[in-house]
Design a protein that fits this description.
This protein is mainly α and 501 residues long. The chain is built from 20 helices and twelve strands. Helix 3 links the parallel strand 2 and strand 3.
Length: 501
């Protein structure tokens, strides 16, 4: 980042001396506006920038675009930083706050005014609004009519509020090249004398973004294609400053599962499907950050038909050439599948650490100790999210207070109580630290009582221990519960059956 004291001539000299971006090392930026939570589409932009920087041994900059003082909040900045940290997308430079750079924008405005590339506009907002409405009613595209463009800059208009407008040149390129979208035509009809600085002195987005991207020597602007319409105005401003124009790569947006634009208003509907507009929600829903990065990268970018990528692979394989042109449609099933794959690859200890927080949501306070590691190990092949894993682990902490009625019908037929009693009586002779010992004992019970059919022993037992017939291996469950707890749960089930029969 340039020091604030650096003079404009210094900046220009540097920019001109570079003479182009070809030989420069890659510098990219993620530039969120802190006006709300970090949007999942924004995260995808951050990821693409980050990976592009890594792939080209470049620099990834985080710039917080907070010049809209009304809507920017510190809480939103905090959330952006937290989310990027969670996703392990650490910036090489920044966070740089635009609000710390107001004097740089002022210097740039002075330069433009001096060059006659900008002018002060004293038109009253109400009058402009009237003209805009008029254009709308006549089905014309509204453009500023240039009233103040012709004003003599030396004329003293007195103490009146003013904006600063860009003096749009007559000549403009007929297109720009986008690294994702290809050649994009520039429509002169849409280029007007847009506002650089508002009447309250704050710079507009189109102005500050160009100043910052130029001063920060950004080589590639990778951002959502909702900004395509801004790019021609921005290119004209680079030219007015004689700054080299960076390369643009406009990414297709991220859409909801039904293919329509993501909308915050539909959050509840999304939540039920296991997705959200807000990245922070994914953490709460039990997704692993690496899985989310893998999923979002792959959404709209491909490398042959590979689905699972290590971070190293993403950093060496990611390229803009293979980013598609159509919107990335969020697919909850695929996200969960990728998450499940990552869960299986995660160490028991790391899973236990994650489970601690999710279990506390259920009022269970535990440490990530050896027992919790074993619990995680028993559930990692059957959980798509950490939330699901926590949910499925509850029976380890709480003995069942009721039993699944369908399973009762199926597995607790007359005679079931005797099976449970027999198992309980055998327990003292078993080595609970070894699942194999439990397995052997149950197998021999099966040959004694159920013609060797282990399921006929295991299912009634599972129902007694967990309240359902879906759980990790019953030997594993018994071993983790331990002799005392297993015995207690069997006794309770026997009592239940004694009352029933
Ligand atoms: N602050 C803008 C946004 O959040 C950044 C756009 C850009 O990358 O130029 O949309």
């Amino acid at each position: 980042m340039l020091a604030r004291s650096q003079t404009m001539s210094g900046i220009f000299a540097r920019a001109t001396q570079l003479g182009g971006l070809m030989n420069q090392s890659v510098r990219v930026r993620f530039a969120p506006s802190p006006t709300g939570y970090l949007h999942i589409g924004g995260v995808r932009t951050a990821i693409y920038n980050y990976l592009f920087a890594r792939r080209h041994q470049g620099v990834f900059i985080l710039r917080i675009e907070d010049t809209d003082r009304q809507r920017s909040t510190r809480e939103a900045v905090r959330q952006i930083l937290d989310s990027l940290e969670w996703l392990d997308l650490k910036p090489d430079e920044g966070p740089i706050l635009q609000s710390d750079r107001l004097s740089i924008y002022q210097e740039h405005i002075d330069t433009l005014l001096k060059r006659n590339s900008a002018y002060r506009c004293y038109c009253a907002p109400e009058l402009l609004e009237k003209k805009r409405q008029q254009a709308i009613s006549e089905k014309r595209t509204y453009k500023y009519d240039g009233t103040c463009r012709k004003r003599d800059p030396n004329e003293d208009p007195g103490e009146r509020p003013y904006t600063v407008r860009f003096r749009m040149p007559d000549q403009h390129p007929d297109h720009f090249n986008d690294l994702i979208m290809g050649a994009i035509p520039i429509d002169g009809e849409r280029l007007d004398d847009w506002i650089l600085v508002r009447s309250d002195g704050t710079p507009t987005y189109n102005f500050s973004v160009v100043v910052d991207d130029a001063c920060m020597r950004i080589t590639h602007i990778i951002r959502g294609n909702d900004h395509v319409a801004n790019t021609p105005s921005q290119i004209m401003l680079y030219r007015a400053f004689d700054y080299p124009v960076p390369q643009f790569a406009h990414m297709p947006l991220t859409h909801g599962p039904d293919g329509s634009k993501l909308s915050k208003r539909r959050e509840e509907e999304y939540r039920k499907l296991g997705i959200s507009v807000s990245v922070q929600e994914y953490r709460k829903m039990g997704y692993l950050p690496q899985a989310l990065v893998n999923y979002l990268t792959r959404l709209g970018w491909s490398h042959k038909d590979q689905e699972i990528f290590s971070r190293e692979e993403l950093q060496t394989k990611f390229d803009l050439e293979h980013v598609g042109k159509s919107p990335g449609v969020l697919d909850p099933a695929k996200l969960k599948w990728i998450n499940a794959t990552y869960i299986k690859q995660t160490s028991d200890q790391d899973l236990a650490n994650l489970l601690v927080a999710h279990l506390s949501d259920h009022g269970i306070r535990v440490e990530a100790n050896e027992r919790l590691c074993r619990i995680a190990a028993s559930l990692k092949i059957r959980s798509e999210t950490i939330v699901e894993m926590a949910q499925k682990s509850l029976f380890y902490f709480h003995a069942p207070t009721e039993y699944d009625p369908n399973s009762i019908k199926k597995w607790w037929k007359p005679g079931a109580k005797e099976i449970l009693t027999k198992i309980r009586e055998d327990i003292p002779s078993l080595d609970f630290t070894r699942e194999a010992s439990i397995e052997k004992a149950l197998e021999s019970l099966a040959s004694e009582l159920t013609e060797g059919k282990l399921g006929k022993i295991a299912q009634p037992l599972r129902l007694a221990l967990t309240g359902t017939t879906v759980s990790p291996s019953i030997f594993e469950v018994m071993s983790i519960l331990g002799i005392e707890e297993t015995t207690k749960r069997l006794e309770r089930a026997e009592q239940y059956l004694a009352q029933r029969d």
